[in-house]
Design a protein that fits this description.
35% helix, 18 helices, alpha+beta, Transferase(Phosphotransferase), domain 1, six-stranded antiparallel beta sheet, Phosphatase 2c, domain 1, Phosphorylase Kinase, domain 1
Length: 574
């Protein structure tokens, strides 16, 4: 049968027989969710072979298969496959071991071998304990993905060295492998693979793509005819189409794909012709490229070769690629999938024409307040798109806001983003530019959407004034004491055209304590666009506007006093 989950199309089959044994102690299961779990958790195949001499091998195998499938899909969707699988297996092992301790000498406990294959997006995740096996047939190559945990004694006897329920703690083999359309994954108990030579097994699996169910039954028939004296079970998955790349897969690619060579004009990389270098810095290079087949132009970004041995930076680069392809919003630069299989580590983005707000600001040192407020409105829309996906930009600044020729402002450079639940929870020390980063980055405090709000407020302030709200010392502040010595400088002091009510909005968004900033970007934007009476105190408006009669009366008295003082000074001299 064909099973589909978010564009991942597979055909799966399984079969199990007692064989020459009186009872079947193998257990196996497949689950392919048809809802959102298909994308977040993937498809699962599990095969367990209960240890006959343990007394409760059959029950151990059944509990392991049923428990793993149900508990794996119940783990938080923000957990990685590895975290989910290992935690579920650790809990199952402790339960099996605990149950085994309740039995007498005649019952040695709940022991079972275990192999699980999880295919999510374009990666296969393998969890393995014991001597069941998982193999992959790709083209003419049959590759083992597991290693038996067994020791052979003599010519016909083996002893398990590792199994679920054997001890309070268990060492679980975990590995990943890439998935391609046309791959055939094969799981089997030792009653099958111990009696089928590899050439014969490979020949049998060659027909799996035509009919996986028939292939499973044929393999069990041949194992029986070969003299198998154990339970015989197997599973087959044929991959017909892949799902879109996800974050974990992107980061796995970063660990395996080589960095491109130094690119030159006219060079072709994966069907993309290099036309010109657009930008280069210490972190990356950006080129204008053209698809040789379609004629479309894109921006191609490559990591600097300085990061060739920096796994963390390459992982972040791959994450930027994934985020760009995942988001489709007018105010966020759009990532593109390569036109053909990627041979090098790079990312493709839509080609933007225009300039950054940093470059624009240098040409327009005193812009209209309404113009900057309009820029802020578009930036807020882009940030909202990120925040709805539990993603922080973490590097908002004028040079990372791009003003297109048609007036659209887009967030660019997603290299510092943080995505909740992707295993990169350790806080980074100011991942973006220090002068724009909220204080919580320097102080190693929790950060959330209000951190991006702070950076946006610094950006708006700089566009309006050309200065920093806390001065040049802000970027060097590293401790709470350092921040206590800094004081907000009113934007009105640098630019008299900035209204007091807008300055008050900036001051609130630029509070050092995140709890004192706006609860949402929408509130901040609203106060940038019109006065908030609750935010601007009455005595904050000019005296002339608050009490014109009193102002002129006081001015008249002051002038009279000055006149009398000047007259007295003249008389005193004479």
């Amino acid at each position: 049968m064909t099973l589909t989950t978010t564009a991942l199309q597979v055909r799966a089959a399984q079969a199990s027989r007692a064989g020459r044994k009186p009872g079947n102690e193998d257990a196996l299961g497949i689950r392919v969710p048809q809802d959102h779990l298909g994308a977040s958790k993937g498809i699962v195949l599990v095969l367990a072979d209960g240890v006959s001499g343990s007394g409760e091998g059959r029950r151990a195998a059944e509990v392991s298969v049923q428990g793993f499938i149900s508990d794996y899909y119940a783990t938080p969707e923000t957990w990685t496959v590895k975290t989910s699988g290992e935690r579920v297996l650790s809990a199952l092992n402790r339960w099996l071991y605990g149950q085994g301790q309740q039995y007498t000498q005649d019952h040695h406990g709940f022991l079972t071998t275990f192999s699980a294959l999880i295919i999510r997006s374009q990666t296969a995740h393998v969890f393995h304990v014991g001597d069941t096996r998982i193999q992959r047939l790709r083209g003419d190559t049959l590759e083992p993905l597991t290693k038996d945990h067994a020791t052979r004694v003599g010519s016909d006897k083996t002893y398990l060295t590792r199994a679920l329920g054997m001890d309070w703690q268990v060492e679980i083999d975990y590995r990943t492998a890439d998935v391609q359309a046309g791959d055939v994954f094969f799981c089997s108990s030792d009653g099958v693979h111990e009696f089928l030579p590899r050439p014969m097994l490979k020949k049998l699996l060659a027909s799996a793509a035509e009919n996986p169910d028939a292939c499973c039954e044929a393999i069990l028939d041949v194992a029986w005819e070969a003299g198998s004296d154990d339970n015989i079970s197997c599973q087959i998955v044929v991959v017909d189409a892949l799902a879109a790349l996800n974050a974990d897969d992107s980061r796995l690619q970063a660990a395996t794909l080589p960095l491109p060579p130094e690119l030159q004009t006219g060079q072709i990389i994966d069907g993309l012709r290099i036309e010109a270098e657009l930008h280069a810095n210490a972190r990356s290079q950006i080129y204008r490229v053209r698809d040789e087949k379609t004629g479309q132009t894109f921006a191609l970004k490559t990591p600097s070769r300085l990061f060739e041995d920096d796994r963390e930076q390459l992982m972040r680069f791959a994450l930027e690629d994934w985020i760009g392809q995942r988001l489709d919003h007018a105010q966020v630069v759009k990532g593109m999938a390569p036109p053909q299989a990627r041979q090098w580590l790079y990312l493709l983005q839509e080609l933007l024409e225009g300039e950054t707000l940093g470059a624009w600001s240098r040409k327009n040192p005193r812009p209209a307040v309404q113009t900057v407020a309009a820029f802020a409105e578009q930036a807020v829309k882009g940030l909202r798109a990120l925040h709805r996906r539990e993603t922080l930009h973490q590097d908002i600044k004028p040079d990372n806001l791009f003003l297109c020729k048609n007036g659209v402002v887009k967030l660019i450079d997603l290299g510092a983003v943080h995505v909740a639940g992707l295993g990169d929870e350790s806080p980074q020390d100011r991942p973006g530019a220090a002068e724009y980063a909220a204080p919580e980055y320097a102080l190693n405090l929790p950060r959330d959407t209000r951190s991006d709000q702070f950076s946006l407020a610094v950006t708006v302030y700089e566009l309006l004034t050309g200065a920093h709200p806390y001065g040049d010392d802000y970027a060097r502040a590293r401790s709470a004491a350092d921040f206590q010595h800094l004081h907000y400088v009113s934007a009105c002091r640098h630019n008299p055209h900035v209204p007091l009510w807008l300055d008050a909005a900036l001051k609130k968004a630029l509070s050092f304590a995140a709890s004192q900033r706006y609860d949402s970007l929408g509130e901040f934007l609203g106060d940038l666009q019109k006065p908030n009476p609750a935010l601007v105190p009455v005595n904050a408006s000019p005296w002339l506007e608050r009490d014109p009669a009193g102002f002129w009366r006081a001015l008249a008295i002051t002038m009279t006093l000055l006149t009398f003082f000047e007259l007295f000074w003249i008389l005193a001299r004479h």
